[in-house]
Amino acid sequence: MNGTPVKLQRMLTEAGVASRRHADGMIAVGRVTVDGKVVTVPMERIPADADVRLDGRPLPRKPETVAFLCDKPRGVLCTAHDPEGRETIGEWAVRHGAPRGLRLYTVGRLDFLSEGLVILTNDGALAEKAGHPRYGIRKTYRVLLPRPLSAAELARLVRGIPDGGETLRALSAENEYEAEKGFVAKLVLGEGRNREIRRMMDALGLKVRALRRVAIGPLGENLLRGKPLRRLSPADIARLLPHG
């Protein structure tokens, strides 16, 4: 067999059939064969031209990598499917011009009531990298609150707030301006845990009136140019993952 060896896990991810975690499971239970033999080690290196099959079917050819910067509205779910029939981010993206039939992974999930920037891509490896803490991709938010944060509260957000066995922490926090319906604070987060800002504000006794992500790393709202969705260029992706 010829070709530069590639990790089997990566082959499945790049073929768009699974995320890295799901690919590991598929391989471990014996669903993948290489040149007719079952391989159960996800990290085993396989020649790029090997006959790799999932459940007896050849892996699809690696599709063209696409990535979109999206302005997710309130009321859209960052999930692949909702049993209650609510609109998902993939369905919303197709409605706004993304191609049909792509398996899209979400980078930078937002909860149902939050809005702002998320990235969708059909490249599972890109999604894994962009979501990994070691790349340190910062996410910037504006949060509408009933009052400004005190100096002590701002310091506490940066120092860290214990909650549910985790420490929730902002890399920076500041009051920005008074708005029509409250006061706007800007927070920058590193890891972005589940509902992190809402949980931090709950701990401070503050109700979040609105929450919007305005930047993912160097990619900000200005890139959308007033549109709900925009395809990212290779240069945009290189800015997001300069050492990727």
Explained architecture:
This protein has 244 residues and is an alpha+beta fold. It folds into three domains: 5-58, Roll (Structural Genomics Hypothetical 15.5 Kd Protein In mrcA-pckA Intergenic Region, Chain A), CATH 3.10.290; 67-134 and 220-240, Pseudouridine synthase I, catalytic domain, N-terminal subdomain (Alpha-Beta Plaits); 138-216, Alpha-Beta Plaits (2-Layer Sandwich). The protein is built from seven helices and 17 strands. It has helices spanning 8-14, 20-28, 89-95, 124-131, 151-159, 196-203, 234-240; strands at residues 5-7, 32-34, 37-38, 45-47, 52-54, 57-58, 67-72, 105-107, 115-121, 139-145, 161-163, 166-168, 172-179, 182-189, 210-216, 219-220, 229-231. The strands form four sheets. Strands 7, 8, 9, 10, 13, 14, 15, 16 and 17 form a nine-stranded mixed β-sheet that branches. A four-stranded antiparallel β-sheet has the order 3-2-5-6. The relative contact order is 0.15. The model has no long low-confidence stretch (mean pLDDT 91).
SSE layout and pairing:
Layout: E1 5-7, H1 8-14, H2 20-28, E2 32-34, E3 37-38, E4 45-47, E5 52-54, E6 57-58, E7 67-72, H3 89-95, E8 105-107, E9 115-121, H4 124-131, E10 139-145, H5 151-159, E11 161-163, E12 166-168, E13 172-179, E14 182-189, H6 196-203, E15 210-216, E16 219-220, E17 229-231, H7 234-240
Parallel strand pairs: 9-15
Antiparallel strand pairs: 1-4, 2-3, 2-5, 5-6, 7-9, 7-17, 8-9, 10-14, 10-15, 11-12, 13-14, 15-16
Helix pairs in contact: 1-2
